[in-house]
């Protein structure tokens, strides 16, 4: 199984926006998107586009499902079933975005995740929060 740290490099849109792995714990993952001009949604304010925040929350949440290799392996497919996001405030111009996601329940077929997006010094004042469910599929390789 490829290391969780290398997972984002294999996702084209994550690589395109500069998403990088920061850390992981038991069922938890932190991911970062560095501020970049090409990610700005409003040129007058310099605020990052909401789609970048959506992608950050979704990818970090999926990675939180994959933190425990004993419960989930790379050879199983996974798809986002539902992603509900509450945008609480605009991101600050010229500041990196972070997301901490926690997989709080996993069944045989579905994983449940909570996440928050924030700036480095403002974890207690989130930009957005999400709850997500992921379908855990069958193995991706054919059976003999």
Report on the structure:
- It is a single chain.
- The chain is of the alpha+beta class.
- It has a single domain, classed as Hotdog Thioesterase (Thiol Ester Dehydrase, Chain A).
- Helices cover 17% and strands 42% of the residues.
- The chain contains 3 helices and 8 strands; from the N terminus they run H-H-E-E-E-E-H-E-E-E-E.
- The strands form 2 sheets. It has a 6-stranded antiparallel sheet. A two-stranded antiparallel ribbon has the order 3-4.
- A hairpin with a 2-residue loop joins strand 1 (20-25) and strand 2 (28-33).
- The protein is globular.
- 29% of the residues are buried.
Give the structure's gist in a few sentences.
17% of the residues lie in helices and 42% in strands.
What's the layout of helices and strands?
Elements: H1 4-7, H2 12-16, E1 20-25, E2 28-33, E3 40-42, E4 47-48, H3 50-65, E5 76-87, E6 97-106, E7 110-118, E8 128-139
Antiparallel strand pairs: 1-2, 2-6, 3-4, 5-8, 6-7, 7-8
Strand order of the largest sheet: 1-2-6-7-8-5
CATH architecture label: Roll
Report the C-alpha radius of gyration, rounded: 15 Å
Estimated share of beta-strand residues: 35-45%
Count of alpha/pi helices: 3
Low-confidence stretches: none
What string gives the helices and strands in order? Answer: HHEEEEHEEEE
DSSP, total strands: 8
CATH homologous superfamily assignment: Hotdog Thioesterase
Query: How much helix is in the residues?
Result: 10-25%
**CATH structural class:** Alpha Beta
Given helix and strand content, the structural type is alpha+beta
**Looking at CATH, which topology would you report?**
Thiol Ester Dehydrase, Chain A
Largest sheet: 6 strands, antiparallel
Work out the count of structural domains.
Answer: 1
Shape summary? globular
Span of the ends, CA to CA: 20 Å
If you average the pLDDT, what whole number results?
88
- By oligomeric state, this entry counts as single chain
